């Protein structure tokens, strides 16, 4: 019998002897049977395992609530509300979790600094915005302009998340400070478990947007590379190709760092106590879904990519930025033009269509982050 099977058998016997609710029992057995979760239990020590058992016994109402509720995850909400309690005293930290808090805080600070130093990224974003603005009247009827406009809208939504400020807020919570400059010396506070989960879901939101951005950038790169074969607007095509390649590389790097930050907080937040009283926890969980497992971000990204792979040409025709040129074969220019017109008709773009605008009406009053349509340029009434 393996270590995982021994732990699972012991937990099942413990649950059978202490839990009387059949529905809650089925949920816990199903949870413990997950191989991904069992991989975490194998590295925990005896104290952490005992703490987990006591947590099961003391939070039966929370498990029952998680079974019945159908609340969308917080990372799918554009303007998710903050939890009621953000900062707690450090005396309430769980000392049974074997974590070096000072080391974790140092790693969080490094990630925080890297998120705030993205000047090159935002310069390229501004170049894309200015290029789109200047080319709107002449190129708005072409689908390649719409691709770039879609990337521009995703970047606008990503910027509205202010992910660097979100990480700054959880870092400042250890000093209960209002500015980063005041975060010096020994820390005497800790963020609540709900605030840490809120931060992790914001990290998932930002990562999903960067994943979508990389797909759109590849398609924009492919569409503008056609200009090189047509020998039309060559300088404009090279400009867009350069912007797309740079933004794609920096987006991939940023997404990897966001994932590292999530894994750091996920292991760490187990030591943070809840800031909500036990009698109010069921009501809080019935209104929010902030479950943060070790594979929550990975599963969300894989599920999103699986859905997008059925529609996006990025997966059907992969390319490498340094060597790809669309229609680099012996297709004559007239054949390329015909193919381009067919793509325009498929997208439903008319010659007199006005192109994507800068109106913010779509973002006002729409609190749902629909990642299936995020950044898409569509006609609004």
TrEMBL record:
Chain segments carrying region Disordered: 348-381
Domain of life assignment: Eukaryota
Residue ranges of domain Nucleolus and neural progenitor protein-like N-terminal in the record: 105-262
Acidic residues bias: start-end ranges: 358-375
The name this protein goes by in its record: Nucleolus and neural progenitor protein-like N-terminal domain-containing protein
Source organism of this protein record: Phycomyces blakesleeanus (strain ATCC 8743b / DSM 1359 / FGSC 10004 / NBRC 33097 / NRRL 1555)
